[in-house]
User: What shape does this take?
Amino acid sequence: MYEIIEQHYIENFDKLVKRYANRAGSVWNAEDVVQDSFDRAMRYSDSFSPERQEFGAWFNMILNNALRDFKRDDRLLGMSVEYSEELDEVEPLLEWEGYLLESINDDINAKSVQVRQALYLYIFKQYKPREIEQVVDMSNAYIRTSVKEFKQEMRAKYGDVL
Assistant: This one.
């Protein structure tokens, strides 16, 4: 079985990287995903049964699972090649004036580290509380309460501008 996987690697690695580069976000990410797929194929080679399915279909299932896992980890950890701190802070909030955005940023920075991280992920990255809970060591209820209180503070401070 290892010989089949090795041969598939030799014949298809570059093609697979090109095919998955766009879906993975970059060529480097695609290389990681494809490499991880071959690693998984080696580890789980005993699960392949030629009677149930052909090798290509079995490997594509592994490849798609590796891509899904990569994208999930990328989203949860915020590690993306396209990451630009300036764009992330401004783009979702373009309708707000620059001074207002800076003031809100200052208000967020006045909070504790955990609350600051949660607010940043919620407001600027547009994560859901359930997703934030997996990144920051806070309960879902505490995240929701922190966001709700912060929104109330901002409405009291800035009024209808928001």
